[in-house]
Amino acid sequence: MDQSASVEIAKHTLMSGGLVLAVGTIAGLFAQKTKIPDVAVFLLAGMLIGPQALGLIDIKADSALYQILLLFGASYILFDGGASLRFNVMKQVWITILVIATVGVVITAAITSTAAHFLLGVPWIVASLLGATLASTDPATLVPIFRQVHVRDRVAQMIMSESAFNDATGAIVTFGVLTVAMGTGEFSLTSSLFELVTEATIGIAAGAALGYLAALLIAHERWGFFLEYAPVVTIMAVIGAYFAADGLRASGFMAVFVFGIMLGNKDSFGFKMGRAEAQRLDQYVETTALIMRLFIFILLGSQVDFGLMNRYLAGGILVVIIFMLVARPITVFACALPDRRARWSLNEMLFMCWTRETGVIPAALAGILLGMKAPGAQMIASVTFIAILMTILIQAPTTRWLAGKLALLEEKK
Question: Which of 64, 110, 227, 243 is the most exposed place for a label (fewest CB within 10 A)?
Answer without folding.
Answer: 64
